[in-house]
Amino acid sequence: MCGIVGYTGTREAAPILLDGLSRLEYRGYDSAGLAIRNGTELARVVKATGKLKNLAEKTDNGRSLPGTCGIGHTRWATHGEPNQTNAHPHVSGNARRSASGPVESDVVGVHNGIIENFEELKQKLLNNGYQFYSGTDTEVVIKLVDYYYKKYKIGPVDAINRMMVRVKGSYALVLMFRDYPGEIYAARKDSPMIIGVTGEESFAASDVPAILKYTRTVYYMGNLECARMIPGSVTFYDLNGDEVQKDTTEITWDAESAEKGGFEHFMIKEIHEQPKAMHDTLNSIIRDGRIDLSGAELTDEILQKTSQVYIVACGSAWHAGMAGQYVIEDLAELPVRVELASEFRYRKLLLEKDALVIVISQSGETADSLAALRIAREKGIRTLAVVNVVGSTIAREADHVLYTLAGPEIAVATTKAYCAQLAAMYCLALQMALVRGRLDPERYTAMIEELLTIPDKIEKVLEDKGRIQWFSSKFANAQDVFFIGRGLDYAISLEGSLKMKEVSYIHSESYAAGELKHGTISLVEDNTLVIGVLTQNDLIEKTTSNMTECKARGAYLMGLTSYGNYSIEDVADFTIYVPKTDSHFVGSLAVVPLQLLGYYTGVARGLDVDKPRNLAKSVTVE
Ligand code: F6R
Asked: How far apart are CA 242 and CA 227, in angstroms?
């Protein structure tokens, strides 16, 4: 969840690290810090609370920290409150210190993840004379490396390996050792870490955008591996200290896609990139008017044999799974269960042997989704990852991978990756329906043709954004918002409600429309905003009556429906229309006004919509 960057090379490290961290700030923004070494001098550590710009100001944009080797970190607090002492980098020395300056320490490092047995390890280190200045698990792990390094008089790789054997939990660690100037060491378990090498320079990063400007050729570190970087070269080691040979991966994202490109925020830019995300994803799967899942090695036989589908994910990816469930069940007549990954991993579900477990994840690193994937694999159940980040852990560990082609998503609140996930789910549903004989070839072809029109129809929805902006400013001071819908409309409501609460901080809830009167309607009072999603023709009347029930209690009603359903205006106070399309795909259109509503409400309230408080883009801890 935190962001990590490391650099060793020929240029000044601090400005490169600050630039890299600025591209990772979406991963955490409680505090940030740098440790820079100038030749053989001791590392100098500078930290600042709050946004990265505070650290940039404190270091005169890195100019006050000369040196060509360094590590940087942007934090999302797990252990210890977000203050300067707890900010990374952490050091092996005992002194409590806050001012910048050289640090009398043999090891200095940054960490992403959670060390589960840190209390026990801390006690061991306290018994061995170590003192602690912070409340973090990171300080413990760095002191543990220092302990082994000195006790056994071994080199950095062996000391790190001993630490890895002893520590429980997940981590990506980047370290520097006082006795090894110009060198950076990295280690990982269950938290992402990539290494890029180009010319006379080497980079480490927790995520691709940090180093995309410098290199597209990267190594993905494996679990329980260690890396030693010197300028222009990297060597990987396994837990025994033996060298590991690795191939590089070419990142195809262009650097511009990780820039704002004239938009005020990444979120609105990414909302506008949805037609492209959908178009690219569909066109990577649809060839000559047919769905081709050979890239994911999903044969017709596998799909025919599948007796049950489990969709496992978190947050918005889980909402995409909910929508996928309705479409697969309706088209392919295949039973589907949608499970929250954090629940799935601890439930003793009786998985059918011919089941397919689909894990949906933008980052491909979400800890709960990864754990769920591993459980399914341990049980011998076939797994399919629907993932956006190429080479991510979930993508590498699943039996099959279907990539969504949304490109890098920077705003913490997902929009275009969710849109691409829906596209992938539609394709899976259509192919399952065809091979199971539930969809005749003419309808299959017609539905694919219709699906390919969705990107243009999303463009049309975006043209209407002015009305939503106006409406958002009208309700920017709302206390509560309720989203209601039935069937697929409920799945879309869930996503609309999440967008609203995460970027505007207005309390919002999504309810299956029929469920409202079983309790929640007691919260509806004069002027409470109730948003009805009404795109499923067979359910419109039912949801309209639920909206009327709310109106009778004073609610202000917004209706969201397709062109043609003009009778909604008899009930709703404000109506938004989206183009007509097949009812299975209309969620891809209906979600866009809801994303815009969340975005514009957050902006109207003066909030940092790209980096909402308390959230992190990639949740790599449990
Ligand atoms: C909400 C959001 C999160 C993610 C969730 C899963 O806008 O972005 O709810 O959808 O944390 O993340 P991934 O898809 O990376 O597994």
From this structure: 11
**Residue 517, strand partner residues:** none
Is pTM, for the whole model, over 0.85?
no
For a mutational test of ligand 1's pocket, the pick from 271, 311, 366, 402, i.e. the residue with the most ligand atoms closer than 8 A to its C-beta, is 366
Q: In the 3-class helix/strand/coil scheme, how is 173-240 assigned residue by residue?
A: EEEEECCCCCCEEEEEEECCCEEEEECCEEEEECCHHHCCCCCCEEEECCCCEEEEEECCEEEEECCC
Q: What confidence score (pLDDT) does residue 381 get?
A: 96
421 lines ligand 1 (CB under 6 A): no
Q: Quick check: is 172 in a domain?
A: yes
Residue 342 Cβ < 6 Å to ligand 1: no
Q: What is the number of structural domains in the chain? A: 3
Over residues 269-314, the pLDDT tens digits come to 999 999 999 999 999 999 999 999 999 999 999 999 999 999 999 9
Alpha carbon distance 506, 478 (integer Å): 7
Q: Which residues are catalytic?
A: 2, 617
DSSP H helical ranges for 404-487 = 416-435, 441-451, 454-463, 465-474
C-alpha R_g of the chain: 25
Q: How many CB atoms lie within 10 A of CB 442?
A: 8
CB contact at 8 A, 510 and 493: yes
How far CA 136 is from CA of 175, 240, 290, 622, in Å, comes to 16, 28, 53, 17
Token pair of 358 as six digits: 């689909």
How many Å lie between the centroid of ligand 1 and the Cα of residue 622? Answer: 13
Question: Mind spelling out the 3-state secondary structure of 516-553?
Answer: HHHCHHHHCCCCCEEEEEECCHHHHHHHHHHHHHHHCC
Both tokens of 418, joined, read 């969710």
Q: What is the CATH number of the domain that holds 99?
A: 3.60.20.10
Q: Are residues 330 and 477 in the same domain?
A: no
- Rounded to whole angstroms, the Cα distance separating 361 from 402 reads 11
Q: Which CA distances in Å does 272 have to 208, 266, 282, 411, 588?
A: 22, 10, 17, 13, 13
pLDDT digits (tens, 9 = 90+) for 343-380: 998 888 788 899 999 999 999 999 999 999 999 999 99
User: What is the rounded CA–CA span in Å between residue 324 and residue 217?
Assistant: 34
Bridge pairing between strands 225-230 and 217-220: unpaired
What phi and psi, each to the nearest 5 degrees, are found at residue 40? -90, 0
Atom of ligand 1 nearest to the CA of 499: 7
pLDDT (0 to 100) of residue 391: 81
Q: Region 123-152: what's the mean pLDDT?
A: 94
Q: Which atom of ligand 1 is nearest to the CA of 413?
A: 7
In a domain, 619, yes or no: no
Residue among 591, 585, 544, 510 at smallest CA distance from 330:
585
Is the domain of 269 the same as that of 343? yes
The predicted structure's pLDDT at residue 98: 45
Mean pLDDT of the region 205-230: 91
Nearest Cα neighbor of 598 from 511, 458, 503 is: 503
Mean pLDDT of the chain: 93
Whether residue 576 contacts residue 594, with contact meaning beta carbons closer than 8 Å, is answered with: no
Strand 574-578 vs strand 556-562: parallel, antiparallel, or unpaired? parallel
- What CA–CA distance (Å, rounded) separates 29 from 24? 9
Please identify, among 251, 274, 290, the residue that sits at the C-terminal boundary of a domain: 251
